[in-house]
Specification:
Blueprint: E1 4-11, H1 13-17, H2 21-31, E2 34-42, H3 45-51, H4 61-68, E3 72-81, H5 83-91, H6 104-108, E4 117-119, H7 123-133, H8 147-150
Bound molecules: inosine-5'-diphosphate and magnesium ion (MG).
Inosine-5'-diphosphate binds next to loops.
Length: 152
């Protein structure tokens, strides 16, 4: 489909430690998005700095780098129609206090520094970010068995 996009998503260390990985992935899968690459890893400080380069210099930056590299994360590429917009909507507002009920952050998190999930904010940034974690050869391609019922 021509408007298919790839979004980069990461379950943060709080999400992994709280055993919310399945819950978070389910929410993405159940609307009709698909996982096309996934791995669990712990970020080095260098990887964390690369990932959050746009926030360098902000007051929360040092804490963010320390937190995101403090434990395992699950990095994944999510594919589907308008995947970036759709995933960001499902993730909810950055601050869980402002996130609607029914969103990942609205249902599963309390404060901005522990908001359980990361999702890239544009298709361009998604590609830049997922390239830190995945080689092109690690991204798979497949049709869902219910493709014709999820898409028309
Ligand atoms: P996003 O994750 O919704 O795209 P960004 O503004 O890109 O939000 O911020 C990246 C991450 O940095 C947030 O998810 C959050 O964990 C953290 N963060 C952003 N603003 C603050 C803040 O004011 N205090 C603490 N952490 C923050
Ligand atoms: Mg962001």
């Amino acid at each position: 489909m021509s408007d298919f996009e790839r979004e980069f998503v990461m379950v943060k260390p709080d999400g992994v430690k709280r055993r919310l990985v399945g819950n978070i992935i389910s929410r993405l899968e159940q609307v009709g998005l698909r996982v096309v690459a996934m791995k669990m890893l712990q970020l080095t400080k260098g990887m964390a700095e690369k990932h959050y380069v746009i926030h360098k210099g902000k007051p929360f930056y040092d804490g963010l780098i320390k937190f995101i590299s403090s434990g395992p994360v699950v990095a994944m590429i999510i594919e589907g129609k308008d995947a970036v917009k759709r995933v960001r909507k499902i993730a909810g507002a950055t601050n869980p206090m402002d996130a609607e009920a029914g969103t990942i952050r609205g249902d599963l998190a309390m404060v901005i520094g522990r908001n359980v999930v990361h999702a890239a904010d544009s298709p361009e940034n998604a590609k830049i970010e997922y390239s830190i974690y995945f080689k092109e050869s690690e991204i798979v391609s497949y049709e869902m068995i219910n493709e014709d019922w999820v898409y028309e």
